[in-house]
Specification:
alpha+beta, globular
């Protein structure tokens, strides 16, 4: 492809995704399937203009036409504000010609066998389970006219389970992330859901208000991902971000997050991410001119202090700072107590299992709204007193984390709202003042 290019510079990105999935409802497996998707992108640079073409069907006879199309598309474009010379490398990639990673329905063999046992347990307890499992093997290749050759293969999957009483008046949700499903224990998941449904046998009506909350790891991860999506250095420097300083520039070095520590690392065990930048368009958090740039461990927040924001090379040059690429995983660090220990030390508060339907109200202040769902419980004197009604909440995740008074033990965490963001780890967190703004009728 690069040999066909007549542009001043060119980047070619190939991707193959192999996916398997399994669904169940009413304690019965319902469907399963496999899918494969391939894509090829040509990014052409003519002078300071850039354009890209992406196809999911690209027979050999059409490749030159794709290249010409991307070059022609540059002609009508304005000069790119993020123009930078492409990164250069002559390093050889030893696994470049290796076959693409793949998965198939057999990934669920052991899991499905154990799941059948859960179906029997659920029927005996007069409960119904509903769920979804997915596994994906992805391979990305990136080559540029400046000698870059990068390849990355990864495997990641998830399980989500909801348990309900027959009249659907009580429900509980749980989920986890996995690389290969061998480490997923459906019985342990069901134990957790059944215990919550037992707690829900007593319903306590509570009004809207400000509460101390214990967020389970899924809810912590959702707030962390929502925060990460706002962490663009350009937006902060231009005054369009909650990380903008009133006097201009970014609030780097300020303590905004209580005692929280949050980082990304492509080599993080269990949630390893692509270790280089790959994109076909540009924005505040990415640039096509950074394709192939190394992504490394980045401390975004350290003990509450804002340490870094996503900074493409073009903005780094303007800000006289180092380039910091986006990394496709996120870890909230924690070595504290277990969730059970946190509950036991709570005088009065709400245990929130997960969030739902999070939406941004004001991106400049990070004000967001969302719902609780499938399990909110009142904790009194170290014990679960019962389930309470759902709430709509209004809160900035930055403001929420600023009031974190206890951080639990980090582990795999599936953010329910941001469940496309599979590479996350988080602990349970205690937030002293969380704004449950109204009672929700959601069940």
């Amino acid at each position: 492809m690069l040999a066909l290019s007549r542009a001043d510079a060119c980047v070619v990105i190939g991707r193959r995704d192999s996916t398997a999935n399994l669904r169940w409802a009413n304690n019965t497996a319902t469907t399963n399937g496999v899918a494969e998707e391939v894509s090829l992108s040509i990014v052409s640079i003519m002078g300071r203009r850039v354009a890209s073409v992406t196809r999911t069907h690209f027979p050999a006879d059409d490749l030159e036409a794709m290249v010409r199309e991307s070059e022609a598309a540059c002609e009508g474009k304005p000069e790119a504000p993020d123009f930078m010379p492409l990164p250069v490398s002559t390093t050889s990639v030893v696994d470049w010609a290796e076959p693409a990673g793949s998965t198939d329905i057999r990934i669920f063999d052991g899991f499905a066998h154990r799941l059948a046992g859960v179906f029997g347990r659920a029927r005996a307890a007069n409960l119904q389970t509903f769920g979804y499992g997915e596994h994906q093997a992805s391979t990305t290749w990136l080559a540029s006219s400046t000698g870059l050759r990068r390849r990355h293969a990864s495997r990641i999957g998830k399980v989500e389970v909801t348990a309900k009483t027959p009249d659907f008046s009580r429900s509980s949700w749980g989920g986890t992330v996995t690389e290969a499903f061998a480490d997923v224990d459906p019985d342990a998941l069901f134990d957790r859901l059944q215990r919550r449904l037992d707690w829900s046998s007593r319903i306590i009506a509570l009004p809207a208000g400000h509460y101390q909350v214990l967020l389970e790891p899924s809810a912590t991860a959702d707030l962390a991902v929502a925060t990460y999506e706002l962490m663009a250095r350009r937006d902060a420097d231009e005054g369009r971000s909650p990380f903008s300083s009133p006097g201009g520039g970014a609030r780097l070095g300020e303590r905004l997050f209580g005692g929280l520590t949050m980082y990304s690392d492509p080599t993080e065990p269990g949630i390893g991410a692509i270790p280089f930048h790959s994109s076909v368009d540009s924005g505040s958090m990415s640039s096509v001119f950074d394709n192939g740039l190394d992504a490394t461990r980045t401390e975004w927040i350290e003990d509450g202090y804002l340490r870094a924001l996503v900074t493409p090379r073009y903005w780094a040059a303007r800000a006289h700072a180092g380039a910091i690429p986006y990394v496709d995983n996120l870890i909230v660090a924690g070595e504290g107590p277990s969730l059970e220990q946190m509950v036991a030390s709570t005088k009065r508060g709400l245990l929130v299992t997960c969030f739902w339907y999070i939406r941004t109200v004001d991106p400049q202040t990070a004000l967001m709204t969302g719902l609780t769902r499938d399990g909110v419980f009142l904790v009194e004197n170290g014990e679960i007193a019962g389930a309470v009604n759902n709430f709509r909440w209004n809160m900035s995740p930055i403001g929420a984390f600023a009031q974190t008074s206890e951080i639990g033990r980090t582990g795999m965490a599936l953010p329910r709202e941001h469940d496309e963001f599979l590479r996350a780890k988080a602990p349970a967190t205690r937030i002293d003042d969380f704004n449950m703004s109204s009672v929700s009728e959601a069940t």
